[in-house]
Amino acid sequence: MAQALPWKTAWVTGASTGIGREIVLQLMAAGVKVAASARSAEKLGGFGTGVVPIPLDVTDADACAAAAGRIESELGPIDLVVFGAGTYAPVAIDSIDPKLFAHTMETNYIGVVNCLAAVAPRMMARGKGQISWIASVAGFMGLPKAAAYGPTKAALINLAECLAPEMKLKGVRISVINPGFVATPLTAQNDFDMPFLMQPDEAARRTIAGLAEGRFEIAYPRRFVVILRILRALPYPLFFRFITRFVLKAA
Question: Would residue 149 show up in a list of annotated catalytic residues for this protein?
């Protein structure tokens, strides 16, 4: 990082792969003390001595509270959190599996709420801190194959909008991160072209820069975000016509 970052201690979930892992590495390189969480303790071991590994299942609210307490006892007050734990699986319309929808919501949305409940009271009591989570541009609109995933990300965007004004009055900043397609083990499941595909290190760099600037929304890549916002503004008949012709490749 060209400039010193404004945090001393950070907690990153979903840290074993993808954007989360790169955020941990880049924060650590910039001198921030980092606690890294993921379900896999083995994958967290690869960070070395500069990172405190905290194995965690974010769907366990009590475990999230215990993790926050342990981090603050070992590293000091948490200045920044990046909640990035998530899951994704494409949905085929001929096999709607309620268990998949429930698991995706429990991990992606309730997992953030569990971690939020663990850190927000601590930060509000101190009157400072920054809370962020990774949503997605898939939360901007309904897209094919994202029927389980997209609604969880829309919920996370809405959650950030709900909390940001009131949290700010308490001295706590809320940020929502909306990446486009990033090359990760999750997106590797996709069998379609992913426009403007980014690498995790670049996504992490843009995320950290946006957080350091204190932005509410950090969305990238910019051209893809603009295209999606224009599509979202279309009347539904035009929007569905575009999706059918150019995404589903149907007449």
Answer: yes
pLDDT at 136 over 80: yes
Q: Which residues contact 168 (CB under 8 A, 6 or more apart)?
A: 174
Phi, psi of 221 (to 5 degrees): -70, 150
Q: How far apart are CA 187 and CA 125, in angstroms?
A: 38
76, 111, 136, 164: CA torsion to nearest 10: -60
CA dihedral 84, 85, 90, 93 (to 10 degrees): -110
With tokens 């959650």, the residue in question is 159
* Domain spans in the chain, listed from the N-terminal domain onward: 9-247
pLDDT recorded at residue 250:
82
Catalytic residue among 88, 109, 149, 220: 149
pLDDT at 222: 96
Superfamily assignment of 9-247 in CATH? NAD(P)-binding Rossmann-like Domain (3.40.50.720)
Asked whether the predicted pLDDT for residue 1 surpasses 50, the reply is no
- The SS3 assignment for 95 reads coil
Its pTM surpasses 0.85: yes
Distance CA 173, CA 166 (A): 10
Q: Which comes out higher in pLDDT, residue 191 or 39?
A: 39
What is the reported pLDDT for 251? 65
Q: Which amino acid is at 19?
A: I
DSSP label at 45?
G
pLDDT tens by residue, 11-39: 999 999 999 999 999 999 999 999 999 99
Sort 234 into a burial class: Cβ within 10 Å, 0-12 / 13-18 / 19+: middle
CB 118 within 8 A of CB 63: no
